[in-house]
Specification:
By secondary structure, the protein is an alpha/beta fold. The protein contains 8 helices and 6 strands. Helices cover about 45% and strands about 10% of the residues. The strands form 2 sheets. It has a 4-stranded parallel beta sheet. The longest helix has 18 residues.
């Protein structure tokens, strides 16, 4: 009986992960139990090490194993460009693309009056300090194209006005996208962001 309760606890914990519900968690746990030596034990060990060693980078908010992440410590990345993202997952997505060579600043969310999230709950004051201290020339706002993301982008741009160049990612038709499959908002953003050829 005790083993079943421990399995149920593991399934409940796994079901709380993004993208996993109770059924997917049950299948994942069953898979791990059947392959405990090859997968479960190494996974548990890796999770314990990560839980012990990771922390938030004091400079940018990325996940790191020291007080500052590798991106913040790299002098090659100190090129005067700072990319502002909502979450660490967004930072990782930008790094996966491999096209941005500057540093990042993770806000930790977006402004939301309904959820009582103001500038002080986010890392907006720290962003203003970094702009002054790190000789930033350009702040690139890579925030999601949601109402909250755009509200946050406008607020940040207002706070930095006159101190640094503030730009944002282009929005609109994705590469390989067909107009017939796009929503009206995406088509509108693409039209407003048009450029000459």
């Amino acid at each position: 009986m005790k083993a079943n309760s421990e399995l149920e606890t593991l399934i409940e914990l796994m079901a709380k992960l993004p993208g996993l519900g109770p059924r997917s968690a049950r299948r994942a746990v069953l898979h791990l139990v059947r392959r405990r030596a090859q997968q479960m034990a190494p996974l548990a060990s890796a999770m314990a090490r990560v839980a012990e060693t990771t922390r938030e980078c004091l400079n940018c908010g990325n996940i790191a194993t020291s007080e500052r992440c590798a991106i913040c410590m790299s002098e090659k990345r100190a090129n005067g460009e700072l990319c502002v993202v909502e979450d660490v997952a967004d930072l990782w997505a930008m790094e996966r693309a491999g096209v941005f060579k500057g540093r990042y600043h993770v806000l930790g969310g977006t402004l939301s009056a309904l959820d009582a999230v103001g500038p002080e709950e986010l890392r907006i004051p720290a962003l203003a300090e970094r702009v002054a201290e790190e000789q930033i020339r350009e702040v690139i706002l890579a925030l999601n194209a949601t109402v909250e993301g755009q509200t946050t982008a406008h607020y940040v741009a207002d706070q930095l006005e006159g101190r640094v160049t503030v730009t944002s990612l282009a929005q609109g038709v994705p590469i390989g996208g067909e107009l017939d499959y796009l929503d009206d908002g995406t088509i509108g953003a693409a039209l407003r962001s048009r450029k000459s050829l």
